[in-house]
Amino acid sequence: MTTESAVAAPFPAVAPRRRDRRWPPLVPLAIVTALVLCAVFAPFLAPQSPVEGSLGDRLVPPIGMEGWKSGHLLGTDRLGRDTLSRLLYGARISLSVSVLAIVLTGAAGSFIGLLAGFLGGWVDTVLMRLVDISLSLPGILIAILLSVIFEPSFTNVIIVVVFLLWPSYARLVRGETLGLKQQEFVALARIAGCSNLTIMFRHIVPNLIPSILVLATLHVGFVIVLEAALSFLGVGIPPPTPSWGVMVADGRGLIERAWWVSILPGIAILVTVLSLNILGDWVRDRLDPKLRQV
Amino acid sequence: MQRYIVGRLLQAVVSMFVVSMVVFALVRLSGDPIQIMAPPEASQKDIAAMRAHLGLDRPWPVQYWWFITRALQGDFGQSVRFRRPALDLILERYGATLELGGLAVLIVIVVALPVGVYSAVRRGSKLDYAARAFAALGQAVPPFWLGLLLVLVFGVLLHLLPTSGRGTPLHIILPGVTLGWFAVAGLMRLTRSAMLDVLGSEYVKLARIKGLPERQVIWKHAFKNAALPVVTFAALLFVALLNGSIIIETVFGWPGLGLLVIEAVDSRDYPIVQAVVLFLSAMYISANLLVDILYAYLNPKIRYSA
Predict the structure, then answer these.
(1) In degrees rounded to 5, what are phi and psi of residue A11?
(2) A126 and chain B in contact, CB less than 8 A
(3) What value, to the nearest 5°, has the Cα angle with vertex B127 and ends B123 and B131?
């Protein structure tokens, strides 16, 4: 270090903690908030029923195009159902599938990871082999199979998501648990006479929460696209429930005459997922920058 | 290394075994096949005879054993809809899926690698921003919707390209681009971040100080070392292409395995669904195996630790 710089910086330089002060990205935050509100208040906001159409109003174009009708701002589909109302109710499906599936898979995967990391030994070996096997199975094919055996349903979608995502939680939590187990507070808890269960749930789990939350936020967008893709293929949410994926599929054959039927729900998916991904990145940088590679 | 390969091979066998059990169990859970096959006027005695004839009165493990030995000999049963062996149908459609996947891989390699590398080399440039915006978009766009959008723009509005089926070379352009798209986004991001790590290293600085031409520094010294995480992505790429091909073949009516299985779902053609799921799972598991072995070969850390 030269004298000059020593004078300029009398104290050891501290790296500016720029990331810590970063605000959440406002536009994506606003979009996601609006979406949650739409999903919750869909019955009050939707101008029409999402499943019943009027056959007199089939394929009405959205506002601004020739022949649009004031009751249907975003037009109607092949059965005369209002696109806007279906989109609002669709937000419910997308959000409820992703929240429910991620809560379930996060809980199950984390619990398995916790057991593997904390108990070690053969439990660890067996559980981690299960993770490897699970990762090497093709999820979308299993979804297809499930839908042939049992009718397509909300439950099937949840099963498929849990099946696809639990290994990432198990791996993450196992790694973190291995590190935490070595720490002094665990040894002290043991000396104080805590049982394995108490150590796991009272002392280790609270330290795992931030990483699990980060992974969960990063998964929300993924699950929304997955649900839409399964529903589009006819192996996810069954029609006439207004899932965004079902809506895109409904408009497939109409793309020449009525592009809005499938293009508008696609835009809804795109904007939602993009916002969620940007927010997820922000949460990650904020809570757990070491997860950058996940 | 040998131990690693053997272990990995065993794991692949176990995975395939699990898939076959899942397929077998799910199909058995779906109901008694006799109820579907037997005519309504059949007596209890006829049904019992039929069950014995088909071996359905045997314990499950025995039935599973028959199922698996037949499958290994290429007998996946008959398609209910086409009244033909499932394997024949698979072999017929297989080529179309490979063709589509091949084009997508080509697009991914030709676009994602160079753009990823140069967006790292010229960090902060316009190219870098454009590439990153594209990658963020690419990961949020649902592929089936992108396909429809391309159909709308290039088929319906511009009348430039055919939008469905397979025939002329023009037919493959839209499905190929759609399938390649989201794999491009992922690989580009990964190449960029791997290159950024490597470009800051001492040996790249040394290569520059030595006065080597920039192109040689980038491709020979930096990229070779950045390629390792990129290889891992090849497994994910395959997953993306496999899942993607099922979706994209449906959008574009491309007559491959994906369309075959989705049509079979619609017509409740169990044997076909079963056969395609087993077949694609085998492909998927072997591709994962190959990538892991390749990765171990390239990365001494894994080669010697395992």
Answers:
(1) -105, 150
(2) no
(3) 95
B152 to chain A: which residues are within 8 Å by CB? 255, 259, 263
Q: For residue B156, give the nearest of A147, A248, A256 by CB distance.
A: A256
Q: What is the ipTM of this complex?
A: 0.79
| Rounded alpha-carbon distances, angstroms, from residue B137 to A263, B142, B251 | 16, 10, 20
For B38-50, write each residue's pLDDT tens digit: 667 777 787 777 7
Secondary structure percentages of chain A, helix, strand, coil, to 5: 70, 0, 30
Rounded Cα distance between A119 and A116, Å, is 6
Q: Which amino acid is at A2?
A: T
Alpha-carbon separation of residue A52 from A58, A86, A93 (angstroms): 12, 10, 17
User: What pTM, to 2 d.p., does this model score?
Assistant: 0.83
Helix B270-298 to helix B86-107 angle, to the nearest 10 degrees? 40
Cβ atoms of residues A104 and A158 within 8 Å: yes
- Enclosing H/E stretch for B133: helix B126-140
pLDDT, position A166? 92
Count of Cβ atoms closer than 10 Å to residue B111 Cβ: 18
Residues B274, B30: Cα–Cα separation, whole Å: 12
Token reading at A101: 């599936």
Residue A151, number of CB atoms within 10 A of its CB? 10
- The CA-atom distances, in angstroms, between A102 and each of A91, A192, A277, A285 are 16, 35, 15, 20
More confident residue, A283 or A135: A283
